[in-house]
């Protein structure tokens, strides 16, 4: 069965994950993390993609991003992926692929899923046992939103601005949101949606989304509508 094309539409937030081949490490030094962040910053500007959140793990990374053009996200990911592989292979004296095939992605409904997705990403290092708290991990956007540091890669989504009327109020509200964690069902939905490529959202949102693309947006919409039965 042919693989569905990625669901990518401008103006909507997309959850993206790129894994190392066979779950192998994609970073060897701290400079490697910095280099990938630099490539993301350069190419996000080049292809007009707003990166709202990210986390770089040892063998994969997540992004939450909104492209302004239909091909902006795939063009950015292709440019970043190719450049980083050349950089990494040259330094490590290796050849061949670094990535586990093409990146995975899905489109999500901003409200209620965007802030949940950000928390999901921030808590990835905590779930992996790398740190005790999200703020202790240096390779995510959590520090920017919690007021710990400024991150030039990050473009906040309007929903973040709605958390408070002042920077302090927004930072405190977001830090508390992450500390509270997310429900296992929400975590499972976010994981499954990005791995499967089906849109994540409420029924009305999904129905409106389907009007904008010929690509199926949810699994339960597969196949053609049943033919009308003509009675004798």
Automatic annotation (TrEMBL):
Q: Which InterPro entries match?
A: Transposase_17 (IPR002686), Transposase_17_sf (IPR036515)
Q: Which residues form the Transposase IS200-like domain?
A: 9-124
The organism encoding this protein is Polaromonas aquatica
Q: What is this protein called?
A: Transposase
Q: Which Gene3D superfamilies has this protein been placed in?
A: Transposase IS200-like (3.30.70.1290)
Q: What is the lineage of its organism?
A: Bacteria, Pseudomonadati, Pseudomonadota, Betaproteobacteria, Burkholderiales
Domain of life, per lineage: Bacteria
